[in-house]
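The instructor's notes for this session suggest beginning with a concrete chain rather than abstract definitions. Hand out the sequence below and ask the class to guess, before any prediction is shown, which regions might be ordered.
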Amino acid sequence: MKIYNTLTKTKEEFQPISKEQVGMYTCGPTVYHYAHIGNLRSYIMEDVLEKELRYEGYSVKRVMNITDVGHLSSDADTGEDKMLKGAKRENKTVMEIAKFYTDAFFSDCEKLNIKTPDVVEPATNCIDEFIEMITKLLEKDYAYIAGGNVYFDTSKLKEYYTLSSHNEEELMVGVRDDVDEDENKKNKTDFVLWFTKSKFDNQELKWDSPWGVGYPGWHIECSCISLKHLGENLDLHCGGIDNIFPHHTNEIAQSEAYLGHKWCNYWFHVHHLNDKSGKMSKSKGDFLTVSLLEEKGYDPIVYRMFCLQSHYRKPLEFSYEVLDSVAAGYKKLRNRIAKLDKSGDTDMKLAAEYKKKFIEVVGNDMNTASGITMVYDVLKADTNDATKLYIIKDFDYVLSLNLLAGEIVSDQQTSVDSEMEAYILDMIEKRAMAKKERDFATADSIRDELAAKGIVLKDTREGTTYEILG
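After discussion, reveal the predicted structure:
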């Protein structure tokens, strides 16, 4: 496998520290709101990366955090805590907000065929680990206390910008809000490791610490959770491009100051999803979610295919016109595969040749667009249908596009008897009532019950229709 390493700014052959297992860390969501589809582009591409590693024979342990405390609304350690902001917005406790939006996030991931990481750790589980790391950083003189808070002293490092390399564009993408100067900082780039009650008296989640009652800064959690589950040497760290600075830059600073050696070898960053007005962001108020796409009649897997048709290191512009085109192509592809004859013997020699070629293509810095093209190449190949089905199923472990889920039937009346149709329409009506009453749990359970029977609901502007998977 070859991968573009943000640390070295070059495409490199991936060489894990140990042949036994690849340690992979993913920056998880801040669970104060729904994930928008721009966030989910990163998780889709990270999912492909993990599956490609496994497809190539690597054993992978993937760890992801859940930020349920400490992420401020500005990446400069100023402004309101995002979790507190969500709690105020919905008049709930922070932990109620965290539970609801964590569940919503993984529900979206399931719809997009994103594998759940091997370890998912909420930040609130690791307070002792945060305190231990901060204590050692203070002892090693990499941190200082000012105004009741504990700060990391970036002036103690020879290469603070090792990841971003003073690239002005990359330095700015992570700064999403107005930056207020923190007079407690010795240096502009210093960042908070621990906040105390002296600055955030209204913070709902607070813990005792050697520096007073307070809570951790955002950056400390990923370092500690990675160290806890993957050890002192990390193979691969993933995230969106807006994490490069300051979040990942600060992770490297505190982790390597704490450890006394290099921490992570490869950094994988996914570029933004844009709309016509620019980068998608929750701060704009109205933002696109998986549920909204479903309400408009789109299968979430169509959005996954939309992402896979573009390279992860290029900005991707979203439009419904393009999504409609992808949806039409996806339906034709699924129908074409569904018509293949399952009988016959599989040519395993040919299948092995195609697998080798797929690894060469997709394993070359996640060239997923060419991976999809290979599916069409297989359909045109001079071999029997059983071999084609075997190869496509093999590819779909990585692509995860449900390519063998069966034919999408467009004529409902030819596929369902009157009793079944009455049942489906009754369920659609009950779901509509549940949504009207904002009982989304019931609405989702009805959709899931029908899906389990091979009946896929499509919410359109004209109302809800259904399709039967053959």
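Then share the key points. The chain has 15 helices and 17 strands. The two ends are 36 Å apart (CA to CA).
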